[in-house]
């Protein structure tokens, strides 16, 4: 059941990526002009990458319904944070919140924390606000806010899928240890950003 759902989601995302390649070739006004910039923004920033992979990884570790719920909650709430950033609404300690997301999510995975679904969704949602706000404030003026937002949501979704894919390793005991080790690595990367080492 999970494998079929995963295959469907993966196929849908591949189709979106193929459509985006053509869409990003256009210039001028409209929804397509910011897509590529928004898409690459989360993928090229390691502070974003580790947290977004961690969301998928933790969701896979927790199993159903967290497997699909956490990767849905994060981009939805992130889009709200992005809108706040575009509108210029202040949010204190954005970079600290982003770095802490890697530390906290990584530690939750490393210590195999099995939080109730509402707690997990709340933690993911809170951190999503910081990531979204950062994306929104960095919107290039020449680009469509809608295209940029769709781009960073799709890019984020792909990173969640990477985490979910790695999370399937938890089906074996050795895989569980590898996933927990990945959580520790994610926490270390988050800590490096938190303390200004990265």
UniProtKB/TrEMBL annotation:
Keyword terms: Membrane, Signal, Transmembrane, Transmembrane helix
Keyword Membrane recorded: yes
One Pfam assignment: HupE_UreJ
Oxidoreductase found in the keyword field: no
Signal peptide: 1-25
Membrane-crossing residue ranges in chain numbering: 43-61, 68-87, 93-112, 117-134, 146-170, 177-197
InterPro entries (alphabetical): HupE_UreJ
Coiled coil: none
Identification of the protein by name: Nickel-iron hydrogenase, accessory protein
Species of provenance: Pseudooceanicola batsensis (strain ATCC BAA-863 / DSM 15984 / KCTC 12145 / HTCC2597)
């Amino acid at each position: 059941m999970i494998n079929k759902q995963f295959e469907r989601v993966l196929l849908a995302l591949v189709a979106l990526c193929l459509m985006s390649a053509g869409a990003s070739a256009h210039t001028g006004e409209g929804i397509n002009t910011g897509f590529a910039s928004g898409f690459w923004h989360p993928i090229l920033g390691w502070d974003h990458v580790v947290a977004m992979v961690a969301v998928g990884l933790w969701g896979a570790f927790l199993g159903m319904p967290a497997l699909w719920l956490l990767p849905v909650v994060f981009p939805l709430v992130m889009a709200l944070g992005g809108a706040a950033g575009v509108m210029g609404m202040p949010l204190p300690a954005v970079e600290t919140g982003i770095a802490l997301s890697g530390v906290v999510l990584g530690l939750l995975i490393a210590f195999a924390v099995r939080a109730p679904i509402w707690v997990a969704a709340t933690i993911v949602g809170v951190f999503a606000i910081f990531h979204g706000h950062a994306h929104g404030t960095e919107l290039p003026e020449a680009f469509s806010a809608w295209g940029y937002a769709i781009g960073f949501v799709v890019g984020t979704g792909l990173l969640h899928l990477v985490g979910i894919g790695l999370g399937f390793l938890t089906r074996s005991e050795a895989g569980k240890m590898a996933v927990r080790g990945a959580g520790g690595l994610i926490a270390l990367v988050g800590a490096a950003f938190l303390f200004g080492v990265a």
